[in-house]
Request: fold
Amino acid sequence: VSVEKPQDTWLVAAYACQRRSPLPNNNQLLTDALETLAEEAHFCGHEGRSLAFSRASSVLKALPRTVRRVQELDSLPCLGEHSKRVIQEVLEDGTSAEVETIRQSEKYQAMKLFTKIFGVGVKTAHQWYQEGRRTLDDLRGHPAQLSKEQQAGLIHYEDLNTPVKRADAEAIGQVVREAVNKCLPGASVTLTGGFRRGKPSGHDVDLLITHPVEGQEAGLLKKVIACLDQQGFLLYHSIHRNTFESLEDSDQEPSSHASSMDQYERCFSIFCLGDLPGDAQEGAGAEKPSRVRRTSGASRFWKAVRVDLVVTPYSQFPFALLGWTGSRIFERDLRRFAKREKKMLLNSHTLYHLEQKTWMSAASEKEIFQHLGLEYIPPEERNA
Ligand code: CTP
Ligand code: MN
Ligand code: MN
Ligand code: MN
Reply:
């Protein structure tokens, strides 16, 4: 929670999960600069440094108005010397020489280009860079060296790097909802990720699937994918099975190193979203998507869209919803706050009290915030 004090300084909580970060970011110029530094550090494998810049950026997102003078930052947490120096530069000159140098560097540009390919992480991108590759065509020349995922990523590169609009996300949600209900009546589909935080566009569509009768969701994903595939909606998909062992049934404690990846059954996919010219005449449902087979490159009525489908048992749904709504910094700080301040382990499946050695169940996100002793922050204010 940030409160503006009369002497023109702000009180901002140290953990992102204690702050309200609504969407209009009043300090875009500053946060863009800091996020470039965070990205550059990430590209170099300097995760601690990267996180520090991300945290600095996140703090500025919680401010109720634009920063004008560097002195206004004195009361703020998470701002290191380096971040402050860059902020000062941008405030004075409108730009930071260090940031501009990074943005224009060959390495940053190649890393950026490569990591924007679906299925390519920093490690692979860096390896390609070391091998002297610089362009997408350099990669297209060696398709055998690419995973199936990366090949699909290259084919659909342009589409997948065009922001997905909310209307398209809702339409895909509806298509998935229909398929899910055909396979298992009573199951629900929830739009999560950035769209749940109120973002008008995003890089993908994140959907959570569950059923109020625990156990009913088992085997559902395969059926849904088959159904969607049969209708021609899928350009690419890969299913990853559930690897979560019910710890409540064992004597084991959950592992304390926070794995960034949860263990739900999931599908990373690329949808074919399009409006057939004929479909528009079908009436009110102009937003209703329908697939169009790729014919020629000339005029297309379809677009490739990344979609993440995740299936969760009902009892874990609130944890999955909280974990998949983001933002990434908000999630990181929720877990860090739980561990350091409450001696609890939070992940997208459960909450575990390390000292009482008990599992804390929750029927809603609000209950999870309550367990953690945190004020409830609605999704629209989790844009940390
Ligand atoms: N997430 C996760 N495990 C993954 C991928 C993502 O738990 N393997 C979580 C992330 O922590 C994030 C949320 O799911 O909070 C959504 O991830 P992502 O789609 O990458 O980001 P968005 O916030 O939705 O941003 P965008 O609009 O760019 O998609
Ligand atoms: Mn997303
Ligand atoms: Mn996603
Ligand atoms: Mn995949």
About this structure: Confidence is low (pLDDT under 50) at residues 276-289, 292-296. The first helix runs from residue 28 to 43. The chain is about 40% helix and 15% strand.
